[in-house]
Design brief:
The complex is a heterodimer.
Chain A lengths: L1 H23 L2 H18 L4 H30 L13 H19 L3 H11 L4 H8 L3 H31 L1
Helix pairs in contact in A: 1-2, 1-3, 2-3, 3-6, 4-7, 5-6, 5-7, 6-7
Chain B lengths: L1 H9 L4 H8 L5 H13 L1 H23 L11 H46 L9 H5 L2 H8 L17 H9 L15 H7 L14 E3 L1 H8 L10 E8 L8 E7 L5 E8 H10 L8 E2 L3 E9 L5 E12 L3 H9 L6
Antiparallel strand pairs in B: 1-2, 2-3, 3-4, 4-7, 5-7, 6-7
Helix pairs in contact in B: 2-4, 3-4, 5-8, 5-9
Classes of the chains: A mainly alpha, B alpha+beta.
C-alpha cells in the first residue's frame, strides 16, 4: 500500500500542486497543501488513493480560501503583496505579462460556477471522466456537457477581459 | 433500413459528445460510431474542429495559470517522517485523554463507592475506612493501585491500567523511582512525553551558544521565541549544505520553569526530541507546527523544499505548550 502511495505521490504530486495552485494562487501554499494531502493519505490508506487525494485537495483548498478570507483583514495591515520577481533567465516585462495573463485566467475561472470550475480543473489535473464523476457526484454522462460549458465560458470571459484590457491600454 | 440511414445522417454529433470524444472518454464502439458519422458529415467535422480549438485554448490558458516554479516532489521519506511525527503526537494526546478519562472515572467510582459504603456501614464504624478514605492514604493507594511498583512487576496486578496510576501517585506526592511502561505504550510515546531534564545541559553534539544578534543573523531574523519571556540562552547547530541551522531557544516561563523552543529540519527536530526523552517524567512537547521551509539547491536551477517544524518543550501541560507554540510568529 505504501509502495502504491509512493508511486502515486511521484506521479501525481505535480498535478496536485497545479490543481491546488489554481484554487489558492500561491505556489508555496499549494505545495504545502499538496504535502499535507499525501501525509493524510498515509494515515487514511484510502482504497482509491488517486480520487481520494484530489477530493481531499479540493476540501483543503476550500478551507484555505475560508481561512484566507478570515485572515485578510489582519494581514493587509502588516504586509503588502510582494512585487513580481524576475529570475535572471526571464526578463521583467515577460514576467509581468505572465502575471497579468495569470490574473486574467484567475478572474475568468472565478466567473465559472464552482461545479464547472471543479470539473474543469480536475480534468486538467489528468482525471478521467468516471473519476471526476465520482468526486463531484455528477453522472459520467454529464461530465462532457459540464466540460463543454466550462470551457466555453472560460474562453468567453477571458476574451472579454482581454478586449477590455487592450482597449484600456490603447486609450 | 432507409429510416435508420436517414436517422444517422440527420442526427449530428452533440457538442458534449465531441468534447468527450476528443478527451478520449468514450468507449471504442462510440468512437467508431462518431468517426463513421464525421466521415460523412461536413458540418460535424467543422464542429469537431471548433471544439478541438476550444479545448486546446482552454488547455493553454490553464497552463498559463500554472505555478511559475516547477513543483518538485520532496523525497517521499520526508513525508513519511512528517506522518510519523504526527502519528506520535496523536498517540500521546490520545493517551493523555485516556489517562484523564480513567482518572475521572476512578474518582467518580471512588466517590460513588464511598457513598454506597457509608450507607451500608454507617451503623458500624468497625467496618473500616471507605474507599474514598483509602484513596487519601498514600501508602495504601500505592499498594492497592500501582500496577508496577519500583520493587518489580511481580507485585502488580496485570489487568490494571498503568498510566492513570502515575497521575494518582503524583497527586499524592509519592513518586515511584521507576515505572515500567506496559507493552500497550510505544517507545516513541514514552520518549515524547518524557523529554530531557530541563536543568541539565540537554543537547549533545556540537552546539554553539550565541547571542540574540548572532542568532538573528544566522536565521535571517527568525529566531523562534515567545514574546515577553526572558531568553536564557540560544543554541544553534548547523546542518549540511544550505539548510538553516536548528535553533533551540531557552526562556523562563512566568511559572519559573524553563521552556525550550526548538525549530529546525523536521528529521533533526524529531531526532532531538526523541533522543533526549525518557529522563524526566514531567517534561512534555507541544504539537509540532510547520515553519518556513528550506529551499535546497541540488546543483541545478531547481530547488527542493526541506520541511521544518517547531515545537516547544517544558514541564508544563501540553495545552499551555501548544498555546505558547501557536503564539510564536515566524516571518514567511
Amino acid at each position: 500500500m505504501t509502495d502504491d502511495l509512493e508511486r502515486l505521490y511521484k506521479t501525481t504530486y505535480a498535478a496536485v500542486v497545479r490543481f491546488l495552485y489554481r484554487k489558492v494562487w500561491d505556489s508555496d501554499r499549494a505545495e504545502d497543501l499538496a504535502q499535507e494531502v499525501f501525509i493524510r493519505a498515509m494515515a487514511h490508506q484510502p482504497e482509491k488513493p488517486r480520487a481520494w487525494v484530489f477530493a481531499v485537495a479540493a476540501n483543503l483548498a476550500r478551507d484555505e480560501a475560508r481561512a484566507a478570507i478570515r485572515r485578510r483583514k489582519h494581514l493587509t495591515l502588516l504586509t503588502n503583496d510582494p512585487l513580481p520577481m524576475s529570475t535572471p533567465d526571464t526578463p521583467v516585462d515577460e514576467v509581468m505579462e505572465q502575471d497579468e495573463r495569470k490574473a486574467q485566467v484567475n478572474l475568468a475561472l472565478a466567473e465559472l460556477s464552482p461545479r464547472d470550475r471543479d470539473v474543469l480543473l480536475l480534468w486538467d489535473a489528468g482525471m478521467s471522466y468516471p473519476e471526476i464523476a465520482e468526486q463531484t457526484g455528477l453522472a459520467v454522462g454529464a461530465i462532457g456537457t459540464t466540460l463543454a460549458r466550462a470551457r466555453k465560458r472560460l474562453l468567453d470571459v477571458y476574451d472579454r477581459m482581454d478586449v477590455g484590457s487592450n482597449r484600456a491600454a490603447r486609450s | 433500413m432507409t429510416g435508420w440511414m436517414s436517422e444517422v445522417i440527420v442526427r449530428h454529433v452533440p457538442e458534449d459528445e465531441l468534447h468527450a470524444y476528443l478527451d478520449q472518454a468514450l468507449s471504442r464502439s462510440q468512437c467508431v460510431e462518431i468517426e463513421c458519422h464525421l466521415a460523412e458529415c461536413r458540418s460535424c467535422r467543422a464542429d469537431r474542429d471548433r471544439v478541438a480549438a476550444i479545448r486546446d485554448r482552454t488547455t493553454a490558458l490553464l497552463a498559463d495559470a500554472a505555478p511559475r516554479r516547477i513543483a518538485v516532489a520532496p523525497p517521499f521519506e520526508q513525508l513519511v517522517a512528517s506522518h510519523r511525527v504526527r502519528s506520535t503526537a496523536r498517540i500521546v494526546s490520545l493517551a493523555r485523554l485516556r489517562r484523564v478519562g480513567l482518572l475521572a472515572a476512578g474518582l467518580v467510582a471512588a466517590v460513588g463507592a464511598g457513598w454506597w459504603g457509608r450507607g451500608i456501614s454507617a451503623p458500624s464504624q468497625a467496618a473500616g475506612p471507605t474507599l474514598a478514605q483509602e484513596l487519601t492514604a498514600p501508602d495504601r493507594t500505592l499498594l492497592a493501585l500501582t500496577p508496577v511498583s519500583p520493587a518489580g512487576p511481580q507485585s502488580a496486578p496485570d489487568s490494571q491500567p498503568l498510566l492513570p496510576i502515575r497521575v494518582v501517585a503524583r497527586r499524592l506526592s509519592v513518586r515511584p523511582s521507576f515505572v515500567t511502561v506496559g507493552s500497550q505504550v510505544s517507545d516513541n510515546m514514552l520518549q515524547v512525553s518524557n523529554l530531557a531534564d530541563e536543568d541539565a545541559a540537554p543537547f549533545d553534539g556540537l552546539w554553539q551558544t550565541v547571542g540574540l544578534a548572532q542568532a538573528d543573523a544566522e536565521t535571517g531574523g527568525n529566531v523562534p521565541r515567545i514574546d515577553g519571556l526572558a531568553i536564557l540562552d540560544i543554541q544553534l547547530q548547523h546542518g549540511p549544505g544550505d539548510e538553516r541551522p536548528i535553533v533551540v531557544v531557552a526562556q523562563r516561563h512566568p511559572s519559573g520553569r524553563v521552556i525550550r523552543t526548538i525549530e529546525g529540519p523536521i528529521d533533526r527536530v524529531r531526532d532531538l526530541v526523541f533522543r533526549h526523552g525518557a529522563q524526566n517524567l514531567d517534561l512534555h512537547a507541544s504539537s509540532p507546527g510547520h515553519t518556513p521551509p528550506d529551499y535546497l539547491g541540488d546543483g541545478t536551477i531547481r530547488a527542493h523544499r526541506g520541511l521544518r517544524i517547531l515545537t516547544v518543550t517544558g514541564s508544563l501541560p501540553s495545552d499551555t505548550l501548544n498555546a505558547l507554540a501557536s503564539s510564536i510568529a515566524l516571518r514567511e
